[in-house]
TrEMBL record:
This is TOBE domain-containing protein. Pfam families: HTH_17, TOBE. The keyword Cell membrane does not apply. SUPFAM superfamilies: MOP-like (SSF50331). Keywords: Molybdenum. Residues 65-130 form the Mop domain. The keyword Nucleotidyltransferase does not apply. It comes from the Bacteria.
Length: 131
């Protein structure tokens, strides 16, 4: 299972490290210790990212003041596959991104909820890559 250090998880959500730690202390997010460092399980982080994207208070995070450009780092929140195609949903800071790609490409990239990925946006196409 993919895990993220506090700083990585905070950056993916567009909040400060302190905010993420407060969420852990408040029970809003589960964290464990791995090699002496606090880590957050990827699927837990994906679930929180998805819930944050659905709430209007999302505009109050520091991510809303950052220029996104055309490469958006984020976390995969959902992957729906059939035999030919895959729909990949990501939360990149305050943005929800959806990409349609071949199921083979999604499998090769190892895309699943909780995995970090980068959405490269060109016009109406969204290309997803792993860092």
């Amino acid at each position: 299972m993919t895990t993220y250090r506090v700083a990585e998880a905070a950056a993916l959500l567009g909040v400060s490290d302190d905010t993420l730690r407060r969420w852990v202390e408040a029970g809003r997010l589960t964290a464990t210790s791995e090699g002496g460092r606090t880590v957050v399980p990827g699927p837990e982080l994906a679930a929180l990212a998805e819930s944050l994207a659905d709430h209007p208070d999302r505009e109050q995070t520091r991510a809303s003041s950052v220029s996104a450009r055309n490469r958006l780092a984020g976390i995969v929140t959902r992957v729906v596959r059939d035999r030919v195609m895959a729909q990949v949903e990501m939360v990149c800071g305050p943005y929800r991104m959806v990409s349609l790609m071949s199921a083979e490409a999604a499998d090769e990239l190892g895309l699943e909820p909780g995995v970090r990925a980068i959405a490269s946006v060109k016009s109406t196409n969204v290309v997803v890559e792993r860092p």
